[in-house]
Amino acid sequence: MVSDMWEVLSVFVVSLLLAYPLGGYLATILQDKPMKGDGLFKWVEKPIYALMGVKHISMNWKQYLWAFLLSNLCLLVVSVVVLMTQAWLPLNPNNAPNMSWHLALHTSISFLTNTDQQHYSGQAQLSYFSQMTVITGLQFLSPLIGLALVVAVLRALFLQPNDDHEHKKNWASIHLGNYWRDMIRVLFRFLLPITFVFSLLLNSQGVPSTLSAGPTVQTVEHDSQHIPLGPVAAMVAIKQLGSNGGGWYGPNSAAPLENPTPFSNWLEMVAILLIPLAVIFMVAKFVQRKKLMWMIFGSMLLMSIISTGLSLWTEQYSLQPNDALLEGKEFRFGAESSALWGALTTQVNNGSVNMMHDSQSPLTGLVEMCNMLINAIWGGIGCGLLQFLIYLFLAVFIAGLMTGRTPEIFGYKIETTEIKLLSVVILLQPIVILLLTAIALANPTLTANSNPAFHAISQVFYEYTSAYANNGSGFAGLGNNTVWWNLSTSIALLAGRYSTLIIPLLIAISLASKQKTAQGKGTLNIESATFAIMLIGIVVILTLLQFMPVLVLGPIADFLSIQV
Q1: Which of 94, 131, 305, 408 has a CA-to-CA distance to 76 between 20 and 30 Å?
Q2: 122: which DSSP letter?
């Protein structure tokens, strides 16, 4: 137990120590000012800017949003085409076949939305070309897209010119920076270098990095078995660092070739937290509001500690009276280490696994579902902070109602437009998840569910929750490579991703277009511990009220049936 606590503490402490300076460096990159290393990086960036026609100009909100939508559409089309024609393309030593249209569509949407939910069986259905271009390529670009949108929101709220008579505010006057420069600068100056270092560390632990097809060996039963290899280390590095989660192999990081040693296991857990934490620390330098950053960090850290503690306790508790629950546990690292990974991977929109979540205690699964429903404990790169801002706007509005004051945030009044937009993003989650879950459970032939009764409810609900939260982990036990599963989860993927990215941006633009008022003694102090506790309470109550019935019918009833 002591060794487990040291693992927990070391993962959090090392992640924090590395993330703090990285957050400052990330802020410097996104401020688009002269910095050390410009001579090297501009040598790479300038030809790309010239090829794409990118100019060093700030975009208004329509230009920024159009660039965002256009990039996503182009990436989606190219990805679907590559996956549906991979059998005819190069770098296919294992003779992977072309994907069906619905699996190619789901896979492309899944990786484009930073979810990496996999309805295919790892390396068996993908060529090296598909893995290196579509899968790994989107794993680099999708977190950058989320980061670009959160930076646009911060610029709208905090970095607009001061009000004067010559610059009257309206939506068209709000400038958000340059979408293409935000993407390209962070890719070459931040994400690629860090991934390179992590891939070398993983390769040193035995994670493969080769273009060969892999050897064929003789087993102890005197049969021959092909050992699939490939450029795995780079993909595993970015899947963890980019809050992606999709594995090269079907079992993900439970596969020994993807996660061979205790050090690689520890390293991959640090990578899960590293950049989401860095994005939080970026806020202090980027908008010059340290107190706001510490309030956000403190709120997320408190929720993370509670979630992690519950995951470790429920998994350990479940093993005491019922050794049958040892099935599916990863004994190389231990049940507690796997519970820690499960907590972190659902606190962050990562979704990678080092054991099968379907084999965990029902209560551990309950904690992971709540993590994804909240979706703002650390969250994905950019998306976690945007989801937190949604809760922040809501908490300020509720606090205003409780005190009888007009709700204000950062000097802007929250009025009808912002509340309507907030209502859409808050109500969309239960509508999409619960409606799709109800349809699937009402038609058992659609789900191909491997389990009856309460656990079946958990499996289906988890699949849609994971898709909507852009997490990607699964309970397994579902025959999910079907038209129904691929299309229905694609709806959840798109709804969860783009509502979280676009609606907070629209709210920020609406607020920024208003006249800013000076803060006085009656202004609500949102950068305080009291407000942070209230915000966490609103997050918990909102999650429980919307989803308590399905949580009772699923994981809670499943746990009680096992105890009986």
Answers
A1: 94
A2: G
- Among positive and negative, which fits the CA dihedral 168, 169, 172, 174? positive
Residue-wise pLDDT for 365-414, tens only, equals 999 999 999 999 999 999 999 999 999 999 999 988 887 777 888 889 99
pLDDT in tens, 413-430: 999 999 999 999 999 999
Q: Are 153 and 389 in contact (CB under 8 A)?
A: yes
Q: How many domains does the chain have?
A: 1
Give the DSSP per-residue string, 141-161. HHHHHHHHHHHHHHHHHHSSP
- Domain span at residue 398 reads 390-554
C-alpha dist (Å) from residue 91 to 94, 223, 456: 9, 27, 39
Q: Are 279 and 384 in contact (CB under 8 A)?
A: yes
Residue identified by tokens 């709120």 is: 299
Go through 385-399 and write b for each residue having 16 or more CB atoms within 10 A of its CB, e for each that does not: bbbbbbbbbbbbbeb
Tens digit of each residue's pLDDT (9 = 90 or more) over 474-483: 887 787 889 9
* DSSP structural state of residue 357: G
DSSP one-letter string for 315-356: HHHHHTT-GGGGTT--TTT-HHHHHHHHHHHHHTT----SS-
Residue 177 lies in a domain: no
Residue 63 lies in a domain: no
When the pLDDT of each residue in the chain is averaged and rounded to a whole number, the result is: 90
Residue 167 included in any domain: no
In a domain, 112, yes or no: no
